[in-house]
Amino acid sequence: MRRVAVIGVGVTKFGLHDRTSAELFADAAGDALTDAGIPASAVQALYYGNVVGGETEHQLHTGPQAASVLGIPSVPTTRFETACASSHAAFRHAVMEIGAGVSDVILVGGAERVLNVSTAESTEYFAYASDAVWEQPLGLTFPGVFALIARAHMEKYGTTEAQMAAVAVKNHRHGALNPKAQFQTQITIDQVLRSAYVADPLKLFDCCPFSDGGAAVVLASEEVARRHRKPVWVLASAAASDWMLLGDKRDLARVGPTDVDVVELHDCFTIAEIVATEGLGLFEPGAGGRAAETGRTSLGGEVPVNPSGGLKAKGHPIGATGAAQIAEIVTQLRGEAGPRQVDGARTGLTHTLGGNTATVLVSLFGRD
Amino acid sequence: MTEPVITARAFFERARAGQLTAVRCGSCGELAIPPKELCPACHARAWQPVPLVGEGTIASFTVIRVAPRAHAADAPYAIAVVKLQEGVSILGRIVDIPLDKVAVGLPVRFRPLGAQDQTSVGFGPLG
Asked: Residues of A with CB below 8 A from B74's CB?
């Protein structure tokens, strides 16, 4: 495999937008190409994440449509759909294609628009990512899926609702430092604990919001990347189904959990962050709740998790999320994250879940 | 030729008649529910249907308060992962148990639920 680098990133503000998902993606992609200092004519492929375009925008075939709106209609384009992990899956395929020597420059991104429909509709559309025969007929929702995980974790390890609330408070504190975040206001443990139950034991403030937004990253081979500013190297990119452990994959990069300086992970619900910090090996199984509560995952702590504010505060436009997480880690490793910068970060990790954790992607990044 | 029990339709026909059914691998003995085409343990394609007792205990549960549109009239309702006597687990809707009595470890018994011509998996009190 050839070495692969990220040479450009772009992210729109997340939240309510009066633009199509393709326009949101194009906005982010334009910024990513400018950031890379590379002409659009250099792009050899576009890999694109979008999930509910068919439902919320009556738009399928969203890959080529997004390429057209961006202004690169003749570039070969494929849409990836692995629910909330879509653009991270797109990223992995671009890494493999450049690594294999097929292409030198690939644009990866994603976008979603859901705030143009009601919460009841978007709740239903997101539930389409669960099983239509065995889960949907029961009335299972995504908060419900993670509530089942939360209850099991509480029973097995004694994790508390206050510990889950600590994740929300921490990510809002980080989000307040991110001008692109949907929520830039701090909240308190008490506010989280007093918010209404959505799916017991998860409350409204344990849940990430519905969001519109777009994100893009430019990937390049080492030869191309060397000509550009501050390449951030892809050390590994791995995918699994029904499997949350970094485990064997760390050998790909010869990097272990203690080597990771900064993490962007999939906190669609507060319990998801707790479980992911354990699954990734940052903390022992059962220790994730206490780690959040004692500040070990805060900016300034031993391993800052979700300095961007995470899905919880930055927002979660599902097709864009994977690319946005990668954009944050690249920004951190370049040392350009401003007030939310993790000092001296050299190695970063992104982790994205799709559906009922049925898809998991993990990528590792390093700088020279 | 496909063994009928491995289709979802066959599973729900048996469920509608009150019988919860798993499949056991004729090659390695793995028990699976819901049914699958290949054994996830050994990848053999040699399933035999196994009627289950239909009793188990709640392994985890949630109370859905914000429901998809099709289920809004039912809310709030409980959904649980039930660990069956035979060792496998399945997701089901909890019925006829007050929401404040639903708890991890509570014994429950299978019952078919019918809604809009669609049978789904339910669990009610054991007694």
From this structure: 139
